[in-house]
């Protein structure tokens, strides 16, 4: 499913580092305290008893607000935090998304503790290397810290965030280990695959991105027809499909998924016409030319990649545990108003910019924080 680690992910919040990173900074200073008046170490909620602090929660609330604000700016619209979004206000939606993300990472960290997993010395070296690389790219540690300040992140907190990547990885390693407490029953994985309707496919895309007119699109269609003709004429179409994909496909994921990618039709991963065509294929059979807004596809259905399904099943286990967790909230949590918080946060950022002589460029976290999805290696979303 991968939504666990694709929220910019900016991976997760280190609610408890479990490896000696420690909590960061003074509790009554910093961007979030200025925006909320709540100390950073105040526990705002618990997830099955696992504590989530204000710093952790506000990190994700800030992320969600930034994302929403950026979307509205791109649409040349003004954000109305009181506006309706599926029965709740936009502000309530942003709060709920932050809460759900915190719950998910609380599960990751509590499971790591339950299974006696922690950040190792080797992991710490990786965290150091990631920090150094990110700082160098930013022009030095001072410049990097200044860029992170706009997200309410200091060095200790950034290290906590990176640590959760390793906890997730260790949990997944345990999950993959036969005989371990986390190793799944193969029958459960197969049932999950059937219930969700996973497919593994390989695709050739003749993209129409940049096609200026109908003539340009028709030219691409003619190229797709030629590719299909070569495939149909091949004496070894399975092997020929991959060769043709390497030669002609404009798809971006050929390097990541050279033997096909696994997904659930109807999930929004692929265009509707692609989903429909893929579902209609038998294993090792290919489609005709499938027209979509992206361009023209030729699809080959491969045998289902159960390793990819198993990776998604692991993420589904984590998500289900988060969804079913018992949440308890502090009085301060209930009093948080998204519009008020984000307005004050924006003003606090402006003061930071003035003091630093910069212009609201918020930093990105170390590389491991954004790449935890690679730990499981599934091609599905």
Low-confidence stretches: 1-25, 367-381
| Principal-axis shape | globular
Number of helices: 13
The H/E string reads HEEHEEHHHHHEHHEHEEHEHH
Kindly estimate the percentage of residues that lie in beta strands according to DSSP.
5-15%
Main sheet: strand order: 6-5-8-7
Alpha-carbon Rg, integer: 23 Å
Largest sheet, in brief, is:
4 strands, antiparallel
Query: How much is the average pLDDT?
Result: 86
Classify the helix fraction into a percent range: 40-55%
Task: Reconstruct the topology from this structure.
Blueprint: H1 31-36, E1 43-47, E2 50-53, H2 54-74, E3 84-85, E4 88-89, H3 90-114, H4 121-138, H5 141-149, H6 155-176, H7 186-196, E5 199-207, H8 214-233, H9 237-248, E6 261-263, H10 272-279, E7 290-291, E8 295-302, H11 306-323, E9 327-329, H12 331-335, H13 338-356
Antiparallel strand pairs: 1-2, 1-9, 3-4, 5-6, 5-8, 7-8
Helix pairs in contact: 2-3, 3-6, 3-11, 4-5, 4-6, 7-11, 8-9
Give a written overview of the molecule.
Residues 1-25 and 367-381 have low confidence and may be disordered. The chain is 51% helix and 10% strand. The chain contains 13 helices and nine strands. A hairpin with a 3-residue loop joins β7 and β8. Strands 6-5-8-7 form a four-stranded antiparallel sheet, with helices on both faces. The longest helix has 25 residues, at 90-114. It has two domains: 3-186 and 312-375, no CATH class; 199-303, Chitinase A, domain 3 (Roll), CATH 3.10.50.40. α7 crosses α11 (306-323) and α8 (214-233) packs antiparallel against α9 (237-248). By secondary structure, the chain is an alpha+beta fold.
């Amino acid at each position: 499913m991968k939504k666990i680690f694709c929220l910019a992910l900016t991976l997760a919040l280190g609610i408890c580092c479990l490896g000696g990173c420690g909590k960061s900074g003074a509790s009554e200073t910093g961007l979030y305290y200025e925006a909320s008046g709540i100390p950073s170490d105040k526990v705002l909620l618990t997830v099955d008893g696992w504590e989530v602090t204000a710093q952790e929660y506000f990190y994700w609330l800030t992320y969600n607000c930034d994302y929403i604000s950026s979307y509205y700016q791109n649409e040349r619209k003004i954000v109305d935090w009181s506006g309706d979004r599926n029965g709740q206000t936009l502000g309530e939606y942003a709060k709920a998304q932050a809460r759900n993300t915190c719950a998910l990472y609380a599960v990751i960290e509590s499971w790591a503790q339950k299974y006696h997993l922690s950040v190792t010395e080797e992991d710490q070296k990786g965290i150091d290397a990631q920090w150094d690389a990110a700082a160098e790219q930013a022009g030095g540690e001072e410049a990097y810290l200044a860029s992170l300040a706009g997200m309410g992140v200091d060095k200790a907190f950034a290290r906590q965030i990176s640590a959760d990547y390793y906890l997730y990885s260790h949990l997944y390693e345990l999950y993959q280990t036969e005989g371990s407490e986390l190793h799944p029953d193969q029958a459960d994985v197969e049932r999950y695959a059937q219930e969700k309707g996973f497919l593994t496919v390989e695709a050739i895309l003749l993209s129409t991105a940049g096609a200026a007119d109908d003539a340009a699109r028709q030219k691409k269609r003619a190229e797709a027809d030629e590719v299909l003709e070569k495939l149909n004429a091949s004496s070894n179409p399975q092997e020929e499909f991959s060769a043709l994909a390497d030669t002609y496909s404009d798809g971006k994921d050929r390097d990541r998924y050279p033997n096909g990618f696994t997904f659930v039709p109807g999930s929004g991963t692929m265009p509707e016409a692609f989903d429909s065509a893929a579902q209609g294929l038998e294993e090792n059979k290919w489609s005709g030319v499938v027209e979509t807004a992206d361009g023209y596809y030729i699809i080959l259905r491969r045998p289902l990649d159960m390793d990819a399904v198993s990776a998604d099943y692991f993420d589904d286990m984590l998500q289900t545990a988060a969804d079913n967790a018992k949440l308890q909230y502090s009085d301060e949590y209930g009093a948080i108003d998204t519009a008020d918080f984000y307005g004050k946060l924006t003003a606090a950022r402006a003061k930071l910019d003035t003091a630093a002589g910069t212009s609201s460029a918020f930093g990105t976290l170390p590389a491991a924080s954004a790449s935890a999805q690679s730990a499981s290696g599934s091609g599905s979303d």
